[in-house]
Design goal:
Layout (H helix, E strand, L loop, with lengths): L9 H8 L14 E2 L11 E9 L9 H7 L3 E6 L4 E5 L3 H7 L5 E11 L4 E7 L26 H5 L2 H6 L9 E6 L19 E2 L4 H7 L13 H9 L14 E6 L6 E3 H13 L4 E4 L3 E4 L4 H17 L2 E5 L13 E4 L7 E6 L3 E2 L5 E2 L17 E4 L2 E4 L5 E5 L1 E4 L4 E4 L9 E6 L5 E6 L1 H16 L5 H11 L19 H6 L2
Parallel strand pairs: 7-9, 7-11, 8-9, 11-13, 13-15, 15-18
Antiparallel strand pairs: 1-6, 2-4, 2-5, 3-4, 5-10, 6-24, 12-14, 16-17, 19-20, 21-24, 22-23
Helix pairs in contact: 7-10, 8-9, 10-11
Length: 495
């Protein structure tokens, strides 16, 4: 297989991200609102240290006092996994703490990202009923699906599942480890298990400040998590999701800026397994060097083993940096470098016609990471549309729900941190168009959740997904598509 061409121009990338140029397949709209998403610089850390212990369990006796004497403070503790996150340590203090009894390692805490590769303007859906009694059992009746814009659901055969009545049961849970969920959005109303949902980054004060009192702390101030969640499971009023009957559990491990401290992510993985989620979707990622991170790698393996024992399949996005994961040197790609997870790369159309159809929806996405040793499966994530000179002029995005509590940020600074007055998508029922491997992963999570109702273990679910995949690229395992593009109909219907 010839390697897909890669985007190399930062100016061109900025053009695509802003969605300048024609958008021939954009749904009709009377109003639009641009959503701003922030990303961290490569290698950014949280300012905290992760202290991993030699075995799972509570911190050794006297540990908290030792931290305090060194000027630090324990901010997050996970006894089940055997680690704490500590703030306020100087490098010298961290070195001294590493010599404590029962401590495996003291390492700077990396920050992962939850962000699309690019986005287009959000679009309002007019005339969509919010009446819970009007929620259709068939997502093929969804407002935007019927208008032909959800190429992604057709690409994986989700419409064939719906026609066959395969929707899933409320007792089947998908944990969305992300920026939160807008559980009031019509496609997620009644779909989110708020009793099991939790916030592990502490955004209650921000929600009260920018949204108002009384909201659940998993309210989504960023928008990424809501988009991801509604792709995996949706009521099917505005956009069709893979499943309509399963429940979502919001596990907020990323801040409103889309920054995901690794400690929160690890605790989120463990939490998802402990509350009985059959699938945990992790549309987030980043990379760190393996050298000097023995404690972190040990924690990741400990967490993944815990999830597997509990019966939870971890579905992770491959990443958006066009990186060859087979030749990434000392890099640990969280979490595709880990065993037992399902790593998903992205596909998307290379062209759009004014009235359809989408051109080559199974093309490998230009931004997606790849690698035969890492990628298990490909799924729709959207793509850049290139001109004759190979420059991006538009996007073919995945459309999904836009959180009505998404904050806007001032655009005058390249790295704004303070929300400004006004929010995107809060004036009506909007959908957002994103591209990224973040968008690919929840397609696989939705199908995996439906398979988990028939199969007994995460390994069996993963095997069924791979066996049912549409073999694309090189025969067998391909560096771009893995075992192939996700095929929901083949995995669940056998055809």
């Amino acid at each position: 297989m010839t390697r897909p061409s890669r985007l190399v121009s930062l100016a061109a990338l900025a053009l695509a991200t802003a969605a300048c140029g024609p958008e021939p397949a954009a749904p009709p709209a009377s109003a639009t609102a641009r959503a701003a998403f922030l990303t961290a610089a490569a290698g950014e850390t949280s300012g905290r240290h992760l202290v991993s212990f030699t075995s799972a369990g509570a911190a050794p006796a006297g540990f908290v006092d030792a931290v305090a004497r060194l000027g630090g403070r324990v901010e997050l503790a996970d006894e089940a996994l055997g680690f704490v996150a500590v703030s306020g340590l100087s490098p010298a203090a961290a070195g001294r703490l590493a010599q404590s009894r029962g401590v495996l390692a003291v390492e700077e805490e990396p920050v992962l990202l939850a962000a699309p590769a690019a986005s287009v303007e959000a679009v309002e859906a007019e005339g969509v009923s919010a009446d819970a009694g009007a929620i259709a059992a068939n997502p093929a009746a969804a407002f935007f699906y019927t208008r032909g814009f959800q190429w992604n659901m057709k690409a994986i055969g989700a419409d064939r599942l719906w026609a066959a009545g395969v929707f899933g049961a409320p007792s089947t849970r998908i944990a969305i480890l992300d920026t939160g969920l807008d559980y009031t959005y019509v496609d997620l109303a009644g779909r989110v298990d708020l009793g099991r949902s939790t916030d592990l980054v502490g955004e209650a004060d921000s929600i009260a400040k920018y949204v108002g009192a009384g909201r659940h702390p998993i309210s989504d101030l960023n928008g990424h998590g809501t988009h991801v969640g509604s792709t995996a499971a949706s009521n099917g009023l505005v956009v069709g999701g893979v499943a309509t009957g399963v429940s979502l559990v919001g596990v907020k491990v990323c801040t409103m800026r889309g920054l995901c401290p690794v400690g929160a992510v690890l605790s989120g993985m463990r939490y998802a397994a402990d509350v009985g989620a059959r699938v945990a979707n992790m549309s987030l990622g980043g990379s760190f060097g393996k050298a000097g991170t023995k404690g972190l790698v040990a924690l990741i393996n400990r967490t993944i083993n815990h999830a597997s024992r509990k019966g939870t399949l971890l579905v992770v996005s491959a990443g958006n940096s066009s990186t060859d994961l087979d030749h990434d040197g000392d890099g640990f790609k969280a979490y595709c470098s880990a065993s037992s997870v399902l790593c998903v790369s992205a596909t998307g159309p290379t062209g759009l016609a004014a009235t359809g159809p989408f051109v080559n929806p199974d093309a490998f996405a230009l931004y997606s990471n790849f690698g035969r040793s890492a990628v298990d499966l490909a799924a729709p994530g959207g793509n850049y549309i290139l001109d004759a000179a190979g420059q991006p002029v538009s996007l073919a995005p995945v459309w999904a729900a836009c959180s009505r509590t998404t904050l806007r940020y001032a655009s005058s600074s390249p790295t704004p941190t303070t929300p400004v007055t006004g929010r995107s998508c809060n004036t009506g029922t909007f959908i957002a168009g994103f591209i990224g491997t973040s968008m690919a992963a929840p397609h696989a999570s939705g199908v995996a959740a439906l398979l988990s109702e028939r199969l007994g273990s995460p390994a069996q679910v993963k095997a069924a997904l791979l066996q049912g995949a549409a073999d694309l690229g090189e025969p067998g395992t391909d560096p771009y598509y893995g075992k192939g593009r996700l095929d929901a109909a083949a995995a669940l219907l056998g055809s």
